[in-house]
Amino acid sequence: MKIICIGRNYAKHAKEMNSEAPTEPIFFLKPDTALLKDPVFYYPDFTKDLHYECEIVVRINRVGKHIEEQFAHKYYNQIGLGIDFTARDIQKAAKEKGLPWEKAKAFDNSAVLSPKWIDKANLDMGSITFSLQKNEEVVQSGNSQEMLFTIDRLIAYISQFITLKVGDLIYTGTPEGVGPIQIGDKLSGFIGEEKMFQLSVK
Ligand code: ZN
Fold first, then answer.
1. How far apart are CA 174 and CA 19, in angstroms?
2. pLDDT per position as a tens digit, 161-178
3. I need a labelling partner for 155 at 20 to 30 A (CA). Which of 2, 61, 75, 132 fits?
4. Owning domain of residue 155
5. Cα atoms in the 13 Å half-sphere on the side-chain side of 70
6. Total structural domains within the chain
7. Which pTM was predicted?
């Protein structure tokens, strides 16, 4: 299983990062060891600026390569929600030197995944609203219609380069409002009104 994450898929988030909106999808990988198994996240000691990035997650359910966009919808059935935890200080240093992001993005437990999934038949895929609360205050809210590249477009694009396998996860990018967490924080993620995950930071 691999985790594929999309960078800058929302124009306002690209802007808050002082980055340009991309003309084609940007992706990077996290290893399977990045998946957080517990509802508890231990703040790692290698960063002083750990940020949440709440994202819609797609789970691939068929093997595919060179998938055409018009058929991409056949490669997933369910939508989940996750956080792409990012050590922003490490990412900033890497960006300045033109180095890869793995140290900032791919560390153990950096991929929060909801234990719940929603069948895509029960969602309006063009307009999925989602949000993240930190200590019961909404800090991020987004809608899939703001994505620069749709889920189907992302699947078509990624599969030109990488074979997608059953169980692979695609984190589809974060809307604006990313920010830091502290020990003691409680995070919860929602699709519409439905609570998808809850997490405490220790
Ligand atoms: Zn992200």
1. 14
2. 999 999 999 999 999 999
3. 132
4. 3-201
5. 0
6. 1
7. 0.97
